[in-house]
Amino acid sequence: MRVLVVDDDETLRLIVRSALEERAYQIDEAEDGEQAVNMVATSGPYDAVLLDVNMPKMSGLDALAKIKELSPTTFCLIMTAYSNVQDAVAAIKQGAFDYLEKPIDSERLLKVMDSALAATAMVKELRFSAPQLEFDKGRKIIGSSTQIQKVFEIIHRLAKVETSVMVRGESGTGKELVARAIHVNSHRMKGPFVAINCAAIPENLIESELFGHEKGAFTGADRRKLGKFQFAEGGTIFLDEIGDISQQMQVKLLRVLQERIFTPVGSNQEIRADVRVVAATNAPLEKMIESGSFRADLFYRLNVMPITLPPLRDRREDIAPLADFMVQKFNKSHGRSIKGFENRSLAALRLYNWPGNIRELENVIEHAFIIENLDNIRLESLPDHLQGLVRASRQNSAEAESSVDGSSAPANDSLAGSLAASSELNYPQLKEKFEREFLIRALKAFNGRINQTAEHTQMTKVTLLRKLEKYGINPKQYHSQ
């Protein structure tokens, strides 16, 4: 447990440190509220911060507010004289976990810290147990983001009806998992689930694969074959990459959806199809309809209630719980006991844009399992391109910091240029210039999305919106950048 002790009285800090070190807590010290806020901002979040109320430069109550902005899950404890208990009450209203009266009693201190430790463990457990849709022998769709919660809601609705479904999303977003979730939550759950990748089957064989064929129907058909629609009788068929089938196959598939019958290749007998169809694609079907390569009537038959899966880069808050779930999965399959991620490696996962989405994340975690030989996955165990993101982020932060304090910076940096050209180094004005540029860069990095920008800059959403209003910044301008 990382603990920051903040008091301008060195003797009191020593007393508190001595008591806490009995529990092997990692202790840092700060002399005033301003130093404490800087340490929280630069050293990462602490599990707990003990704050005196009356301190120079910045009071404990002001520091409390700023620390809770930077790290909402940090437990703050206020230390105050008996005569100033009203300050402690005010602090608790502002988010403090508890208060301690001076002189500090070691027994009382340890009791309060034990409570904070238990609460910290609970917060971490909740953080890594994001809402999940569980199905099919423990397989799960994981996520607490607004986008994935909407997907959960649509899945539950579709499970109650028989309509055909179109699942759309980039490769690796989990379209087949969604199809399976719909199947096992429906009344067809006891029937078969048959998945077929339309893009992987040659055009001259796909009709036979889907509907079957009779013996002698074509060269090489030396026996009768049942099609996937017959195997899926009473259940669900999942047609992945539906945009890759030919116009001729689109007509035959439309007949199945409309009339619930099909005819095997080389047969004159119609077969009734008691099958639910779930299709998926990452192709731009609307443009294909305009060009005439995809039938509009088939599209509307499948697209009654579509599900659009967001790419992983648009649901970054789900990266940590997804990665944690994969760690548990690979611990079982590889016989390991890795606990989680170091801060730098988790930061790399959050910074990366994941063009391969969840499938790529899974591959990266398995790669790390092969390389890592310690209890936590380090940055060095991740692929080189993810390691480079953290290094680049640190370099950018160093350049921005050097621009603010007047150190050397790149000549083309606009803030550095304003510093060099300024005849009068006005810190408040330069600070505002830096803050405005920082906000714009952050919005560009996260395509103008408020929730993601707030999370990754460690601001509260309220604070971010207030600053955007202050500087007249419209986040919508950065949606496409």
Structure explained in plain terms:
By secondary structure, this protein is α/β, with parallel strands linked by helices. It has four domains: 2-127, Response regulator (Rossmann fold), CATH 3.40.50.2300; 132-308, P-loop containing nucleotide triphosphate hydrolases (Rossmann fold); 314-386, Helicase, Ruva Protein, domain 3, CATH 1.10.8; 426-478, Arc Repressor Mutant, subunit A. 48% of the residues lie in helices and 14% in strands. It has helices at 10-20, 33-43, 60-70, 85-93, 106-127, 146-158, 175-184, 203-211, 228-231, 247-259, 285-291, 296-302, 319-334, 343-351, 357-371, 384-405, 414-421, 427-445, 450-456, 461-470; strands at 2-6, 26-30, 48-52, 75-81, 98-102, 132-135, 139-142, 165-168, 193-197, 236-240, 261-262, 271-272, 276-281, 307-308, 340-341, 376-377. The strands form five sheets. Strands 2-1-3-4-5 form a five-stranded parallel sheet, with helices on both faces. Strand 6 (132-135) and strand 7 (139-142) form a beta hairpin. Residues 123-131 and 403-424 have low confidence and may be disordered.
How many structural domains are formed by the residues? 4
Cα(first) to Cα(last) distance is 40 Å
CATH topology call of the largest domain? Rossmann fold
Structural class: alpha/beta
**Biggest sheet: strands side by side, in what order?**
2-1-3-4-5
Number of strand elements: 16
Contiguous uncertain segments of 5+ residues = 123-131, 403-424
CATH architecture of the largest domain: 3-Layer(aba) Sandwich
Helix content: 40-55%
What is the rounded Rg? 29 Å
> Which CATH class of the largest domain is shown?
Alpha Beta
How many strands, which pairing sense, and closed or not: the largest β-sheet?
5 strands, parallel
Overall pLDDT:
80
Shape: elongated
Number of contiguous helices:
20
Report the sheet-strand fraction: 5-15%
**The CATH H-level homologous superfamily of the largest domain:** P-loop containing nucleotide triphosphate hydrolases
